[in-house]
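hi! just following up on the protien thing from before. the input was this:
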Amino acid sequence: MTEIDVLDETERESQLADQITGMLEDTAELVTEITALTPPSRLKFRLLSPKAWRAETMAYLDRETEAVFDRSAPSPEEATQSRDAGRAYRAGMLATWWMVEEGRTMLDSAGQPQTIIAPRALHHTGLRYASHQLFRSIVHDAVHQWQIASSDRAIMPIPVVPHDDPTVCYQGLVHLAEGHAEWATQAVARRLGGPDKPFAELPRSWRYRRQSALMKWMARRVANAEAVKQAEEEAGRIRINGARWVQSAIEGVGVAAFNKIWQDTTYVPRQEEVTNIERWFSRVGL
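and the predicted 3d structure came back as:
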């Protein structure tokens, strides 16, 4: 049986912690039934201050980078790229990222899945009092914990350093993980409340809008403006398109056969298979 543990480390958000606990209690068995995945022994959510959220995120990045290079010595070029990426990550994104991130699922220091949330971010994004959207966000992140528990690090969590396994298509893995979580969330929502409801536009805070504009400006300083625009559009489509991909795959091979994907990197879709599932069927032979 899965233990549900929602920790209010801010000591100010007990009501939110109770709300999230109720959402997880209402959906945990459904997620296991729908996905047929191994449930985590402990479903762990942590509510953190922005400072603690940033610190936990950076600690995870450092742990994962160190673990990758312990398993396989990097070339000088890879080591330099990793250091540069770490510096850019710290300097360019984390000061504002917490505000636009609804939740982030990763491994804790003991190697177990956890989801960290900065409650202040929920206020800035408008999710805090949009119960339907908040519910979807919580279940989506919970499904990522099911994925990690079932994968046992074979492919999940998504590596923070591509050097970890160059044979895996990173975009294909993101498409799979996000699409599967969205597919499961949609199925849970339908079971509990009937057909999907249209989402109301979230009331973003002024500070959120300002910081989002700043982050886009910073991105355009280091990348082609058209490439940034395409990346933004792709980020908006990936959950929906990924969910359709997962639905088609499961309709084709069944849930049990599909779940082999969490244990074997050869089943992860390649770039061209993300938009052409018949190629994936043909290659993996399920």
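Strands lie at 3-8, 42-47, 104-107, 113-117.
The first strand starts at residue 3 and ends at 8.
cheers
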